[in-house]
Amino acid sequence: MARCHFVMPSPIGALTLRWENDALTAVLFGVVPDDSPHDDAPLLEARRQLDAYFAGTRARFDLPLAPRGTPFQLRVWRALRAIPYGETTSYGALARKIGDTGPRAVGAANGRNPIPVIVPCHRVIGADGSLTGFGGGLPTKRWLLDHEAHPSKQSPAPPLRGLRGSGGVEARAQRVRRNPRRGELERGSAPLGLRAPRRPA
Q: Active-site positions?
């Protein structure tokens, strides 16, 4: 099947997964309308790994990914996958890592990430340790960071009001003071690189 989608429950609310040409192309917050067939068969492994992540037993994802973006965005998203589980980095540090001196451009690409959670844009925070915008809302971003800091502890679900019906788009910038914390969990398989989506035959 060339394209399909599936809506799965999670501690942070419903997630809409999109699959195309043997790769995951999007993870969207909420139940998002989609004209492709609703089919869980191609997405079983993605669901299994996400369930394990939310249960605190998986630190890395091993899935074929095909996000659509510019070459610069793909570089940023690839760098996001290298941020270790339970750790955070700043927009400036991420910009320096990919050889770009513009934190704003990196922040914009981070906000366009179409596969949040799996491509962990939530691990990027302000240089002063503050949280900034996140497509799923700042309570969800805080929940994900706290969950990774303490994977064996079941955190209360974040408030789900106001979640937009799409993921990968930064919310209007807000700043909430917090102290970044690090968690420890045995690393899983190494992250795969991102690849360009294949065109239908």
A: 121
The answer, yes or no, to whether residue 62 has pLDDT greater than 90, is: yes
Give the pLDDT confidence score for residue 178 in this predicted structure: 34
Nearest one of 150, 157, 149, 119 to 135, comparing CA atoms: 119
E strand or H helix that includes residue 105: helix 103-111
Dist CA 18 CA 37 (whole Å): 10
Give 121-130 pLDDT, tens digit per residue: 999 999 888 8
DSSP 22-60: TEEEEEEES----SS-B--GGGHHHHHHHHHHHHT--SS
Q: What percent of the chain has pLDDT over 90?
A: 62
**Residues with Cβ < 8 Å from 183, sequence gap 6 or more?**
85, 86, 148, 149, 150, 151
Provide the pLDDT confidence category of residue 152 given band limits of 50, 70 and 90. confident
Q: With CA atoms as reference, report the closest residue to 5 among 49, 45, 37, 47.
A: 37
Residue in 29, 20, 189 with CA at minimum distance from that of residue 121: 29
Non-local (6+) Cβ contacts of 152 within 8 A are: 56
Question: pTM for the whole thing?
Answer: 0.77
For residues 201 and 192, give the distance between their C-alpha atoms in angstroms, rounded to a whole number: 25
Name the DSSP letter for residue 187. Answer: -
